[in-house]
Amino acid sequence: MNHVKTIIRTAETHPLTWRIRDDNQPVWIDEYRSKNGYAGVQKALTTMSPEEVVELVKNSGLKGRGGAGFSTGTKWSLMPKDENMKLRYLLCNADEMEPGTYKDRLLMENLPHQLVEGMIISAYALKAYRGYIFLRGEYVEAEQRLRRAIEEAKAAGFMGKNILGTGFDFELFVHTGAGRYICGEETALINSLEGRRANPRSKPPFPASSGVWGKPTCVNNVETLSNVPAILQNGVDWYIGLSAGKSNDAGTKMMGFSGKVNNPGVWELPFGTTAREILEDYAGGMRNGLTLKAWQPGGAGTDFLLDSHLDLPMDFENIGKAGSRLGTALAMAVDNEINMVSLTRNLEQFFARESCGWCTPCRDGLPWSVKLLQAIERGEGQPGDIETLEHICRSLAPGKTFCAHAPGAVEPLQSAIKYFRHEFEAGILQPLGNTRNIMGIQANNLLKTRW
């Protein structure tokens, strides 16, 4: 096993994780307040206007940490300016159903008050009177700890009516989901919260103008909201200065590696840290006897990259230029013993099952890709099957489906074919010759009935 770096977390360098206890027990309100907790709420509500908070977050360069990487302050500024529009909502997307991703769980279970504080400040900036944490149903411990944190915050006067005597009212609720990947899409999340089927909505109108129950709504990720208190306390220049010099993105990011590595995990690291540093210095490298074959930068719905891409800075721009997406920045290492056809089939099977079925390209295209991959995996693929898979990828590209589920689903497939086409070709049956022997007849019958 390679030497693994030890991270020394401080408030100046690790705003998201410095309060985490060594025994992994949750930080409750007394300890949280002793570590400068709720100072951001105090500052925002008593010394700043909502517009000033929005401008501060926009200038900080904070981007959405759920995968899209859109400017948080810009998203906030899209909310209506009408002062008479009192019914507004803030939603926290804590569904985290992306395979291989577990960063939000760590933050919610260890630092529930940090998320609560971030939501109070954000709600104040958005002039939202009510918030919901839409939580993955399997996160039972996170649910229990968040509910306790909310009650503690109420008892301390940070939530409810007339918070800190400022006239601002805010209530926060935890809503557990029923286990659908599609709820990670913000409008599907809104439908589910309302008690409807979790289908994405047509946009426009966007949630900022018509979201929960037709009212202005902003949806942000757990990690995104957890950054807000530190930005309020320490300012824009400090936050921008956290990232490494080779990155244009501001702040830190929860990053990690899973797969057959020596020390799988998640760490708070500055943007610009290379994938090789994370893999070798923090994840301890590949296990003995294994080598890295490929890796996904940010969850199951991102394109595969190769060993030659490991020296890229982990940020939105550089990973995007390499032909993939940073996504959640929780990377998955693929070792040399894994067959890419089997791995891709497994991923596409998941995405096909999790499709809401609303639009035809996704509903029919993803199961079709699974059937072709199953045949190739068995060594029964037909000539032309790889080209058909490529055609499916093009047909499910961005802008050709109702939401982003299918475009994300085919990213691992299109990149696996791009880099490992020979493994797909190995599963294609060779055309039969003119000799009509028994084996040839059996092969023809197999091809006709393989579905």
Topology:
Layout: H1 29-34, H2 39-47, H3 50-60, H4 72-77, E1 89-94, H5 103-110, H6 112-126, E2 130-135, H7 140-155, E3 171-176, H8 186-193, E4 217-221, H9 222-234, H10 236-241, E5 252-259, E6 265-270, H11 275-282, E7 292-296, H12 316-321, E8 330-335, H13 340-354, H14 360-377, H15 385-395, H16 405-409, H17 411-425, H18 438-449
Helix pairs in contact: 2-6, 2-9, 3-6, 5-6, 5-7, 6-9, 13-14, 13-17, 14-15, 15-17
Structural class: alpha/beta
Sequence of secondary-structure elements: HHHHEHHEHEHEHHEEHEHEHHHHHH
Give the DSSP E fraction (strand runs of 2 or more residues). 5-15%
- CATH architecture label of the largest domain: 3-Layer(aba) Sandwich
* Overall geometric form: globular
Q: What is the residue-averaged pLDDT?
A: 91
Number of separate strands: 8
CATH superfamily of the largest domain: NADH-ubiquinone oxidoreductase 51kDa subunit
Q: How many separate domains?
A: 3
**Unreliable sequence segments:** 434-451
Main sheet strand line-up: 3-2-1-4
* Distance between the first and last residues' Cα: 45 Å
User: Treating each run of at least 4 consecutive H or I residues as one helix, how many helices?
Assistant: 18
CATH topology of the largest domain: Rossmann fold
**Helical proportion, percent range:** 40-55%
Protein name: NADH-quinone oxidoreductase subunit F
Family: Belongs to the complex I 51 kDa subunit family.
Pfam family, one: NADH_4Fe-4S
EC number: 7.1.1.-
